[in-house]
Please model this.
Amino acid sequence: MNENPSQESRDRMESAVGCLLAVVGVTVAGAFALPRAAYSIDGGFEAQARDWGVILVDLPLILFAGLVVPPLTWAAGNRRLRPWTAALVCVAVAGLALWGLATWWHPPRNPNPRHGPGI
Model:
């Protein structure tokens, strides 16, 4: 038996890893962004602070970036590097993207956090 995998099986493995990274990326982006945007979605008292810009623009763009950036980084890194190095590059780029998002994106927060929801 030949120990080296065929080109077709290697391509399938790379595609499967890319799909897995897309699912993980959108899950991590959603888990990061949705709690921060909860006040903009809920809107506070009588939904007076609902921010449609966050709901219709910011969140879809963040989720789209979480869906696209990890597989593209994996594909670009896998062309020149070994697979484990490409995975490390992908994790580093995703971490830098989340750090950049945390420093740049500040959706509206509850103005008075001491008070919980009403009666």
Remarks:
- The first helix runs from residue 7 to 36.
- The chain has four helices and no strands.
- The mean pLDDT is 82.
